[in-house]
Design a protein that fits this description.
Blueprint (H helix, E strand, L loop, with lengths): L3 H14 L1 H7 L2 H14 L15 H5 L27 E5 L2 E2 L14 E4 H7 L1 H7 L10 H9 L4 E5 L9 E7 L6 E3 L2 E6 L4 E10 L4 E11 L4 E8 L6 E10 L4 E8 L4 E10 L5 E10 L4 E10 L5 E10 L4 E10 L7 E10 L5 E10 L5 E9 L3 H9 L4 H17 L5 H16 L2
Parallel strand pairs: 1-5, 4-7, 5-8, 6-9, 7-9, 8-10, 9-11, 10-12, 11-13, 12-14, 13-15, 14-16, 15-17, 16-18, 17-19, 18-20
Antiparallel strand pairs: 1-2, 3-4
Helix pairs in contact: 3-7, 5-6, 8-9, 9-10
Length: 434
């Protein structure tokens, strides 16, 4: 029988042992409150509604290295899509900032791109204004756990009226330290009024097991424009839980894309509060599963002000015995009249053993709104497959082309050309392997 209490106790002991180092970083009271909340909530089980179709058994049963030693990594072995072709890059190895692999140059005046740990000492006033203010510790036990343990992550600050032309890349590398390493990256992304930026947040790793429990807090000011892309490209043995929490100001435009191709157990939470009138939010996602991968995407769009459109498209391709969950919730508050929200989840099953659980949700408390949602589950179109084969394309290539066309729809919506092209190549290679 699975003993979740033993794992909770292990986290509590590790927290007590880490107190000297965590206290040196700061936010002691917030950490203690978060740890108390984690102990109260415990590791979620399938009896919890938000985890009904996703078992955290693997996390509970794995013995982790809570203080992984520094590991040398060879970036040439890693997928280049995570690092971009130039411009700002921050690299973290097992949660620790790697100066030798990072580059920060060519940034406009006033823009800050650095490790959160360094920002806590050099830019404390900005960090303290926002850190811990976007998330809700009651949201998730893993969010509380991250808040208790975080030591690093990235800090990106774009001051008002500033445009960052080049995308900012951040890569989190999970490297084997002899036993499964655990890290709790905490990221803070602030784009002030009338500012613009693009951030690519990547999670990659070697062939070993690891557990990454990450939280990204994002603040988009009035009339701000932000594109955020999160890539999960890690080992198929990786355990991965992330939460992206966004708060949007008046007339802001935020676009978030989540692409998951790696990981054994993956849970992505992407939530946005449309807190200013006239703001717009787009959340897109693509998940590609094979083997026994399990990929869970939960989203929540909270329309808290009127005249705010939102768009959501998630697509899944599942092969072998892989499984996935999509749970998309749209909330329209009573004040949020003239809301226009569209949500779609489309899934392609390539095997009789592949499983998808999809649950679109609408909670509408206003009366002058236009909201739609839908979900589809299907197989490859036999007529389309026959058409391609009748044009001289063999069965395997025709099948791969149809899968690629289905999945690339999400990738094509990314506005960063270099990233879009790299992901398209990766997709084509992935399906060609099958």
């Amino acid at each position: 029988m699975l003993d979740l209490n033993s794992k909770v106790s292990a986290f509590e002991s590790a927290f007590d042992e880490a107190q000297p180092e965590l206290n040196a970083i700061g936010f002691g009271e917030m950490r203690r409150s978060a740890m108390a909340r984690f102990l109260e909530l415990g590791i979620p089980t399938t009896k919890d509604e938000e985890w009904k179709f996703t078992s955290a058994r693997e996390i509970a049963e794995t013995e982790f290295d809570f203080s992984p030693t520094k590991v040398d990594v060879d970036l040439s072995r890693m997928d280049k899509v995570a690092f971009g072709t130039g411009g700002p890059l921050l690299v973290f190895v097992n949660g620790a900032f790697s100066v030798e692999h990072s580059r920060v140059d060519g940034l406009p005046e006033g823009v800050i791109v650095k490790s959160l740990r360094r920002a806590l000492s050099e830019d404390a006033s900005i960090v303290e204004k926002h850190l811990g203010k976007v998330i809700d510790l009651d949201e998730s036990a893993f969010t509380a756990l991250n808040t208790a343990f975080f030591e690093g992550g990235y800090f990106v600050f774009v001051p008002k009226n500033t445009i960052v032309e080049q995308p900012i890349y951040v890569a989190f590398i999970a490297a084997s330290s002899g036993m499964p390493a655990i890290s709790h990256p905490r990221n803070l992304l602030v784009v002030e009024n009338h500012a613009q930026a693009s951030v690519v947040e990547s999670y990659i790793g070697d062939a070993g097991a690891s557990f990454v429990n990450a939280v990204t807090e994002c603040v988009a000011g009035e009339d701000a424009v932000l594109e955020h892309v999160k890539l999960q490209l890690g080992s198929t043995e990786a355990l991965h839980v992330t939460s992206m929490q966004i708060v949007q100001g008046r007339a802001s435009n935020v676009k978030s894309t989540v692409v998951t191709m790696g990981g054994k157990l993956v849970r992505n939470d992407t939530n946005s509060v449309l807190a200013g009138q006239g703001c717009e939010c787009t959340i897109n996602g693509l998940y590609v599963g094979h083997g026994d991968q399990h990929i869970d995407n939960h989203t929540r769009l909270d329309h808290a002000q009127p005249n705010c459109p939102s768009h959501e498209l998630f697509k899944g391709v599942l092969a072998d015995k892989s499984s996935a969950v999509f749970n998309g919730k749209i909330i329209v508050r009573r004040i949020a009249q003239k809301t226009d929200s569209k949500q779609s989840n489309m899934n392609l099953l390539l095997s009789d053993d592949a499983v998808i659980n999809t649950k679109p949700q609408l909670e509408i408390f206003a009366d002058d709104v236009r909201c739609t949602h839908g979900a589809t589950i299907g197989r490859l179109d036999e007529d389309a497959l026959f058409y391609l084969r009748s044009r001289g394309i063999d069965k395997t290539d025709a099948r791969n082309l149809l899968i690629y066309a289905f999945a690339s729809d999400v990738i094509d919506r990314i506005k960063i050309p270099e990233l879009r092209e790299s992901l398209e190549d990766m997709l084509f290679e992935r399906f060609a392997e099958k």
